[in-house]
Amino acid sequence: MDLRLAPMAGVTNAPFRLIARECGAGPLTSEEIDGRALIEGNERTRVLAQYLSEEHPIAFQLLGGDPDVLAEAARRLEAAGADAIDLNMGCPVPKIVAKGQGAALMRDPLRAAVIFRTVRKAIGVPFTIKIRGGWDDRTVNAVEIAQTAESEGIDGITVHPRTRSQRHTGRAPWEIIASVVDAVRIPVVGNGDVGSQEDAAAMTRATGCAAVMIGRGALGAPWIFRAESVSRDERARIIRRHVELIEAHLPERLALAQLRKHLAWYSTGQPLATRLRPALFQAPNAAAIQALFWEAW
Ligand SMILES: Cc1cc2nc3c(=O)[nH]c(=O)nc-3n(C[C@H](O)[C@H](O)[C@H](O)COP(=O)(O)O)c2cc1C
Q: What is the DSSP string of the chain?
């Protein structure tokens, strides 16, 4: 099964992506990267665009609404080694949609089509999109957007079928994924509420999708990408490797934040988790954070 790690802002940076790959994840995707900030040389955005050579094949996901800005950002990412460029058409954050970006592109099919055409012409690597079911209950237009995308030469589509109004609430309506699969010939990746290998198989059967993308189900559990069960010792080894990668590859402040967040997720289900979490967020440095975590492990 082709299982992939879903892009998650603030989570799927190089260390976590590589851990997912080492556990068996297929092609990787960066978290969303603001196209304009990238072109303007913003330092935090530059860090977001960093990756490790072992991560190939890796797609970089762009966020934006201006076709020319997105095309220039896509060109630069291609020059930096991107194996594919993905367009974010799903981000629900009010500040983002107010600018006509992310999920706002679902209700602006004309602008979306111009972006598809402009970026497609600008790059040689595959260009994919990640969409929602639609903007809201009254405008479920994933199929129309997917057909436009196919006719503009888009190479693949990931469908997270909730509408923007649904955010992360309610069940992800997998039947929308199936209707997109039926409507286009390009590969469709299904996404939404997959929390196990069994769920992924069920989604594949129910929708006919070419691959399955897992987001929240991989938080604190990157071994979800392993077909076989993973022992407690093996989990500990994977966590240690993740910590090493965070410390080796992220700037210090970001590294601390990532250690806190990921170790809190790894503690899910541990007897001491509820007491451990606040302590992880108060601990002053990396050594203290790790000591607390392993004491409770
Ligand atoms: C913390 C968080 C950050 C996310 N950031 C992004 C992002 O940068 N780009 C994107 O396309 N989707 C983003 N998503 C959406 C996920 O990629 C995915 O579509 C969604 O979580 C549904 O899949 P799941 O049920 O497997 O989590 C994010 C989701 C979460 C929980």
A: --EEEPP-TTT-SHHHHHHHHHTT--SEEEEEEEHHHHHTT-HHHHHHT---GGG-SEEEEEE-S-HHHHHHHHHHHHHTT-SEEEEEE----HHHHTTT-GGGGGG-HHHHHHHHHHHHHH-SS-EEEEEES-SSTT---HHHHHHHHHHTT--EEEEE-S-TTTTT-S---HHHHHHHHHH-SS-EEEESS--SHHHHHHHHHHH--SEEEESGGGTT-GGGG-SS---HHHHHHHHHHHHHHHHHHS-HHHHHHHHHHHHHHHTTT-TTHHHHHHHHHH-SSHHHHHHHHHHH-
User: What are 224-280's pLDDT values in tens digits?
Assistant: 999 999 999 999 999 999 999 999 999 999 999 999 999 999 999 888 888 999 999
Pick the CATH number of 3-225 from 3.10.180.10, 3.20.20.30, 2.60.15.10, 3.20.20.70: 3.20.20.70
Regarding the beta carbon of 194 and ligand 1, being less than 6 Å apart is answered: yes
Q: Is 91 a catalytic residue?
A: yes
Enter the pTM of the model. 0.97
How far, in Å, is the centroid of ligand 1 from the Cα of 295?
31
- 160 CB under 6 A from ligand 1? yes
State the distance from the centre of ligand 1 to the C-alpha of 159, rounded, in angstroms: 11
Q: How far is the CA of 192 from the centre of ligand 1 (A)?
A: 9
Please state the domain extents for the chain.
3-225, 232-296
pLDDT in tens, 30-62: 999 999 999 999 999 999 999 999 999 999 999
| Catalytic pick among 48, 71, 91, 188 | 91
